Amino acid sequence: MHDSIGPLPPGDQPIDLDKSPLLRRLPFLRKRLAWTPIGVFPTPVHAARLPNLNGPQKDGQFFIKREDFSSPIYGGNKVRTLQHQLAACAIHHKTHPEAKYLTLGSSGSNQNVATLVHGKTLGLPVHPCLAQADAPDLENTLNLLSILSFNPSVVRLWTKPLGILAAYLRALFVNSDKIFAMGGNNMLGVLGQMGGILELAEQIEAGEVPDIDVLYLPVGSTCTLSGHVLGICLAKHIGMKAFESPGFKIVAVPIHPGIGAAQRNFGIFHSRLSSFLPLFPRFAFSRVSKYLKREGLDVDLEPLAIAFLKDHVELVTDHELIGEYGTHSLPSLAAATLDTTMQVEGKQPEWMASLHDDQQRKAIIPWLCGHFAAKPFARLVDDLQREGEKPAKPLVRLFWQTKSWIQPHGGADEWTHLNQLAKEKPVKEWINKGRAHSLLRRGSVSVPNGNPSTYQYLMTKVQEQFPC
Which residue range or ranges hold the Tryptophan synthase beta chain-like PALP domain (predicted)? Predict the structure, then answer.
């Protein structure tokens, strides 16, 4: 399943490959690795502060890499994850027009939404598979509603696991269908995330942001973390003037308690065993490094990445911070309330000029979702508060914002479809238990007696972005 979507040479459609940071830095890949320019890059880096965090006139200051602005139709870190994968799928689809494209995610998965939305722009029939129920949470319900609003021909839910398994087995052994791995974590997804961190290195070199001391990142499937580690090692190898702080590190916060426990109890991320497990960085280090070396890179990145993971990545295993999968922990919920006072400054993408003033004001404050973003943000806030107690020069801290700024609506009748799915009792209970935790995004969903007016104002229609 991990290798269902592999690297393919690019097709004959002209694409400006200079828009890809990875292909700019590794030009030997241009004729060997398909890529599609979904999204709008580079994403900006904004300066942010939390007023009076450490007392009167003592603000907490940090930077934000605005991956949430990576697309006007659905942003977040999954856009980079999909750039090489969707390009390969589009090429596959030309010779296998009967193929379907199955996702693997939970009921609140951002990967499911991103694959469906951006796959639709390329004319790919994506079948979302919601293989596991996340904790009930309005943010998770909104992702399901977004999926339904794009009217996919098939949506598979966790209530019918045998149907999901059968579809995967057919894709693996019988037909020409393809499977997007969990979180997009395959070799192509990791290559996409390498491009993201190379882009940040270019912004540091250009003086758009100071060289950073600490980067904060959520860890789900480990795709983004793996790509960042490999990309930083590549940046250093090719002599980029970035990530040069002697104490530079990534603070990586797992969002699943099982992963946190595995690291806390067994050190799984650093174990040789993890090099055989697809959802851990050492597996990705091996696969990607071998591919790049085979294609022409003059260095084996794997030992460099393993050493960087050991010496420069702090894996947070605090079970209170990690909490339950798919929703806020108590520390993340407390930290997320700071979005009401957060002040953010920086240039917005040109496409945001088409938004209403109210939309622009809301978009500038990052969405601190309980599933992902709020957990590393809570650690960032804690570090800022501890730093405020010391007289030393503040560190340059950067928060990698992974949650999209937009909750997309594809134009179809998602409410009727949701009520049809809610005829199954487990689905109905999951929907009705979901509560809003964000003070900036209040809403509710109740089936069958509610109505869409209680949540649709949180969604933005984007169907005009798609080809007929």
Answer: 40-232
How far, in Å, CA of 105 to CA of 112, rounded? Answer: 6
Q: In what order do the strands lie in the sheet with 45-50?
A: 313-315, 249-254, 214-219, 397-400, 60-65, 45-50, 343-345
| pLDDT bucket at 465, cuts 50 / 70 / 90 | low
Closest CA to 72 of 373, 355, 369, 345: 355
What is the DSSP annotation of 334-390? HHHGGGGT-EEE-PPPGGGGGS-HHHHHHHHS----TTTTHHHHHHHHHHHHHHTTS
Cis (ω within 30 of 0) for the bond into 394? no
Strands 343-345 and 45-50: antiparallel
Are the C-beta atoms of residues 144 and 130 closer than 8 Å to each other?
A: yes
Which one, of 27, 203, 7, lies nearest residue 89 by Cα? Answer: 7
**The domains spanning 17-74+187-400 and 80-185+415-422+431-465 adopt the same CATH topology:** yes
CATH of region 17-74+187-400, choose from 3.40.50.1100, 3.30.70.1530, 1.10.1060.10, 2.170.150.40: 3.40.50.1100
Contact 33, 84 (CB under 8 A): yes
Write the pLDDT tens digit of every residue in 251-264.
999 999 999 999 99
Write down the domain spans for the chain: 17-74+187-400, 80-185+415-422+431-465
Dist. CA 122–CA 37, nearest whole Å: 11
Write the pLDDT tens digit of every residue in 385-417.
998 777 678 999 999 999 999 999 999 999 999
Residue 441, φ and ψ in degrees, nearest 5:
-135, 70
Lowest mean pLDDT among 58-67, 138-147, 353-362, 448-457: 353-362
User: For the chain, give me the number of helices (H) and strands (E)?
Assistant: 16, 15
Q: What is this structure's pTM?
A: 0.96
DSSP 142-197: HHHHHHHHT--S--EETT-HHHHHHHHHHHHHTSS-EEPPGGG-SHHHHHHHHHHH
- Separation between Cα atoms, residue 410 and residue 405, nearest integer Å: 16
For residue 89, is pLDDT > 80? yes
